Write a sequence for this structure.
């Protein structure tokens, strides 16, 4: 169930929201809800990526396993070619 929430906007931003709502034939409420929803979804994905990156970094620090930048660049450069390479193996 939706619960009302207040948000304070300065007059300039409020006007911009209203103008966009008018152009899109939506209500300002819809524009703000959509903007907040998209922001939260994007930031949740970024946080998952950040956590995954931290875990990978901690794992590489603990094991010493890695692939060099040159190995990864060579692999990436092969993408889409007839001789596409498999991902580089991690090593110490």
């Amino acid at each position: 169930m939706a619960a009302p929430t207040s948000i304070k906007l300065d007059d300039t931003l409020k006007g911009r929201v209203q103008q966009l709502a008018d152009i899109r034939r939506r209500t300002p409420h819809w524009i703000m809800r959509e903007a907040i929803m998209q922001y939260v979804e994007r930031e949740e994905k970024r946080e998952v990526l950040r956590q995954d990156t931290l875990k990978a970094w901690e794992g590489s620090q603990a094991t010493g396993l890695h692939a060099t930048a040159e190995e990864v660049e060579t692999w990436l450069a092969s993408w889409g070619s007839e001789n596409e390479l498999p991902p580089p193996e991690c090593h110490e």
Observations:
- The CA atoms of residues 64 and 92 lie 5 Å apart.
- The mean pLDDT is 96.
